[in-house]
Amino acid sequence: MSKERTELYRQGMQTRREVLGAAYVDGKEATKKPFDEPFQELITEAAWGHVWSRDTISMRERSMITLALLAGLGNFEELALHTRATVNTGASRDDIMEAMLHVAIYAGVPRANHAMKVVNQVFEELDGGSA
Q1: Could you tell me the fold of the domain covering 58-131?
Q2: Are 4 and 36 in contact (CB under 8 A)?
């Protein structure tokens, strides 16, 4: 890796741990296969090092944007992951609702409806079984 890439990777891993939690990242790293390495380097540097590490908007705002995009595109497994991450980014449940309302209007009610189901399941999990 080049020096710049190494720094982006280091910064990306730090940000990834801050947002998703060290236990989650450590678990993913422990199960990473050699085949996965180029892909993991790419997302660590690009998503986490370049985008999530920027200081132009807050982690809370990035989290809300991410939730809306994931829901709108139907990436519901990632939506659950990033909903869990809101405990680390400062996005409140009210913030999440605002993002889902935008999804309903701009991406469609069926996507938002399913996203709400996923978000509510995560809330139940976080609350210990009750929403």
Answers
A1: AhpD-like (1.20.1290)
A2: no
pLDDT in tens, 50-99: 999 999 999 999 999 999 999 999 999 999 999 999 999 999 999 999 99
Q: The pTM is what?
A: 0.91
For 3-28, how does the pLDDT look when each residue is reduced to its tens digit (9 = 90+)? 556 899 999 999 999 999 999 999 99
Contact (Cβ atoms closer than 8 angstroms) between residue 13 and residue 25: yes
Q: Where are the domains of the chain?
A: 1-56, 58-131
Give a three-class secondary structure readout of the chain. CCHHHHHHHHHHHHHHHHHHCHHHHHHHHHCCCHHHHHHHHHHHHHHHHHHCCCCCCCHHHHHHHHHHHHHHHCCHHHHHHHHHHHHHHCCCHHHHHHHHHHHHHHCCHHHHHHHHHHHHHHHHHHCCCCC
**Cβ(18)–Cβ(86) under 8 Å?**
no
